[in-house]
Structure formats: C-alpha cells, structure tokens
C-alpha cells in the first residue's frame, strides 16, 4: 500500500480500468471491421462466388480472440453493427460510457430491425450520454425493447413468431457435480411449466424435509422420466475411467464425455446403479486402449455388448470436444483432418472431431489441417487463411499413468477376455 493512498484512489483506478476495457473493446471492433473490409476486397479480387464469401471468417475471428466460433460470429455481428449502423453506441463504448456487455445488449435488441430503425434507436438511446447514467443492464434492455416496439411493432411481433422455432432443451455442467438443465420455450409454455411445478410444490411443502425448490426439481424429474428421483433411471451414460478406478478404491477421476471429470467413487456407483434387482447388468464395458507414453487413445476393443465397432465413436472418445483451440463445443461431426478429396485416409489418426462450424470452416479457402501423430499426443496443426498457426493436442485418456502396466490392468484384461 502506497503512503497517502486512500480507498477512494483505489476505487477511482477501478473506474478508469473499466473505461479502458471499453476502449479496448471499441478498438477490437475497429480491427474486426477492418478485417471484414480487407477480406471482402481480397475475395472480390479473386472473384470468389458470392455464396462462398466470408466462409470461415467467424471461426478465424474466434481463434484470433481465443474464443469459440459461436463467439466469433457474435464478434463479427457486433463489429458490423457498431461500425456501420450505430455510431453513437460506438462513441459511448470508446469513451467508456458503455461497457462492452451493455453495447452488446443494444446490438442484440436491434438486430432484427431495419437499418433506418436501428439508426434511430441508436440516436434515441446513446446520442445524449446522460441517458446512460446510472442505467442498469436490465433497465437498458427494457429501454431498448420499449423503443423497438414504439418504432416498429410489427417487427417485434414477427421476431417473436420466428423465435418460437428456436425452442430447445440443453444441459451443461454446473459446480459441485451438478448439471443445469435448461429449456428455451415460448413464453406461455415456459410460464405454464414453471407454474405447474410451483403449484405442486406449494401443495405439499412441509410434508417432508425437502425445501420448496427441491420439490420442484424432484417433480420435474418425475414428470419427465416417469420415475421418482430416488429411483434408478435407466439412461445410457458414457463413463470413461482407468482400470484402477474401476477395480480399486482409487481416488483418480473418471470422466463423462461432454460433462467433464467426476470422482472415481461416483463413477463406480453409476456402474453399480446399472445393475437391476435380478442382478441383470444394465451397464456395458467397451475397452479403449491408450498409448503408454502420453495417454492418447489409439485403438478400441472390437467387441461391444451393445454397439458395434465404430471408428467415429473412437475418435469422439479420443477428442472429447471440438479439437479446434478455444472452442470446447460438443463434437457434432467426425471428418477427415486431411481432406479425403486430397488423399486423406479414413483412419483414427486422420480423424478429427469437430463442431459443425469448424468442420465447415476448414473447407473454406486458405484453411489447412496437418496431422502429426507422434509422442506427446495426437496433434493437429491448424493454419488459418491469414497464416496464423494453432496447434491442437488430444487430451490424454482419463487416469493415464505414463509407461506403466499395472497388476490391476492385467487383472482387468483377463476378466474381459474371459467374458
């Protein structure tokens, strides 16, 4: 702590740093807009067909900003809007009067409007910087919606009708070995589902030691699966673990692909729960073999009690998520890293687990994928159209111990060979 420094000085620096972050975000907008301009000029010079122009650019922007292609597409849309149609919002971001997130709110809530309406929205909200003083994220969102409806109510209604087509259910990891199950629904349906769960919880709360939120969560499980949350719900879940984790009390982690690491004792319990009351097993075992030196998955057992041998399944289990750096999206497609049309082999080594966006992007002009299968893990070198090079390394198999063949592994192989 500097002599004479006050708490107010520290607070003042926090404000200045936040404003600098906004200014940096504005600079990134200008650079992204410049990339768009240069790429368009280059493609025009090369007479690239219109339907192929801009292909892969969002993925490339995402890589440059160490983010997923989905975020890259958002960065592109954000830059186009601020650079071309929302000068007042751009000025407020540059000066630090708007944070990047609040500028994003304004871009998002005007994306479906005509250029003229968007420009008027920009003027109404950001031309006078005092309008933004003390405004919260929620209040700014509400203000944008209000002006949008006043300026173009028909567009708002049409947007709502289109949005219903995007209804979906998703799941993602949450802290403490929990998951967040979400559903994007039309407003009436979403409110009805929540009200039904709440009404049921209201009617029985106090009957046992569960809280109101716990009753709502348990009721959701019961109504979707048809079984009590305390019962075993027969759903197939892939669990990857080492032989030590399976057969001993090892504290090593296991993994659920797409979810992440879980404690070994929980993985063993999940397998135990896969046994019915008559001792008929509901669990199956598929052997995946890792290279001792680095833990990279290199082959898969030819036998499976439930599923036939599948090379795509092997690649997905090896890569676990999209192989492109900073992406982390679930694998949607298994394809050739070195294109098949250029002689790429259909093998595990040349297999590439990718999200749909990155698998499409690598077919665009200037992208090059080179496979390097060497000690240190399965590697793919990715070169973008601007010449930037990124390296992707497949993660080691869960529970990998370098250069060892344990007694437990020998026992496991003997058991499986006898099965």
Structure overview:
The structure is a single chain. The protein has 419 residues and is of the alpha+beta class. The protein contains 15 helices and eleven strands. Strands 9-10-11 form a three-stranded antiparallel sheet, with no helix packed on it. A two-stranded antiparallel sheet has the order 1-2. Helix 1 (7-45) packs across helix 4 (87-95) and helix 9 (187-204) packs across helix 10. Mean pLDDT is 82; it is low at 301-309.
Essential attributes:
single chain; 419 residues; alpha+beta; three-stranded antiparallel β-sheet; two-stranded antiparallel ribbon; 15 helices; HNH endonuclease signature motif containing protein; nuclease; HNH_nuc; endonuclease activity; endonuclease
Would you summarize the structure shown here?
The protein is of the alpha+beta class and 419 residues long.
Strand order in space, largest sheet: 9-10-11
Instruction: Give the strand tally.
Output: 11
Please summarize the sheet with the most strands.
3 strands, antiparallel
Q: Shape from CA axes? A: globular
Share of helical residues: 40-55%
Look at the helices and sheets and give the structural class.
alpha+beta
Global mean pLDDT: 82
Low-confidence spans: pLDDT under 50, at least 5 residues? 301-309
Strand portion? 5-15%
Euclidean distance between termini CA atoms = 68 Å
Order of helices and strands: HHHHHHHHEEHHHEEHEEHEEHEEEH
GO molecular function: endonuclease activity
Keywords: Endonuclease, Hydrolase, Nuclease
Protein name: HNH endonuclease signature motif containing protein
Organism: Gordonia sesuvii
């Amino acid at each position: 702590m500097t002599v004479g420094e006050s708490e107010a000085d520290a607070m003042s620096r926090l404000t200045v740093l936040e404003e600098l972050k906004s200014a940096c975000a504005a600079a990134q907008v200008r650079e992204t807009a410049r990339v768009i301009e240069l790429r368009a000029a280059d493609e025009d010079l090369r007479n690239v067909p219109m339907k192929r122009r801009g292909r892969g650019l969002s993925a490339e922007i995402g890589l440059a900003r160490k983010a997923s292609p989905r975020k890259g597409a958002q960065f592109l849309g954000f830059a186009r809007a601020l650079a071309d149609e929302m000068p007042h919002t751009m000025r407020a971001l540059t000066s630090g009067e708007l944070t990047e997130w609040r500028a994003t709110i304004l871009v998002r809530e005007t994306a479906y409007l005509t250029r003229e309406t968007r420009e008027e929205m920009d003027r109404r909200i950001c031309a006078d910087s005092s309008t933004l003083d003390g405004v919260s994220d929620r209040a700014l969102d509400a203000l944008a919606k209000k002006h949008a409806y006043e300026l173009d109510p028909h567009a708002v209604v049409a947007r709502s009708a289109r949005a219903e087509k995007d209804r979906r259910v998703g799941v993602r990891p949450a802290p403490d070995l929990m998951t967040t199950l979400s559903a994007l629904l039309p407003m009436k349906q979403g409110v009805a589902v929540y009200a039904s769960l709440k009404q049921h919880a209201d009617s029985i709360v106090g009957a046992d030691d569960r809280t109101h939120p716990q009753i709502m969560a348990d009721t959701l499980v019961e109504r979707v699966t048809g079984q009590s949350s305390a019962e075993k719900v027969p759903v197939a879940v892939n669990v990857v673990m080492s032989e030590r984790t399976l057969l001993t009390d090892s504290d090593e982690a296991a993994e659920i692909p797409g979810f992440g690491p879980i404690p070994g004792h929980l993985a063993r319990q999940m397998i135990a729960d896969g046994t019915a009351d008559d001792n008929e097993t509901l669990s199956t075992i598929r052997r995946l073999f890792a290279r001792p030196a680095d833990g990279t998955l290199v082959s898969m057992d030819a036998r499976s009690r439930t599923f036939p041998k599948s090379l795509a399944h092997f690649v997905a289990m090896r890569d676990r998520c999209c192989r492109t750096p900073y992406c982390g999206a679930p694998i949607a497609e298994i394809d050739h890293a070195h294109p098949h049309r250029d002689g790429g082999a259909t093998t595990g080594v040349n297999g590439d687990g990718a999200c749909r966006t990155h698998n499409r992007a690598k077919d665009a002009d200037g992208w090059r994928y080179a496979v390097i299968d060497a000690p240190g893990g399965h590697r793919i070198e990715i070169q973008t159209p601007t010449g930037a090079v990124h390296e992707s390394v497949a993660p080691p198999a869960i529970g990998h111990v370098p250069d060892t063949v344990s007694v437990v592994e020998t026992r496991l192989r003997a058991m499986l060979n006898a099965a």
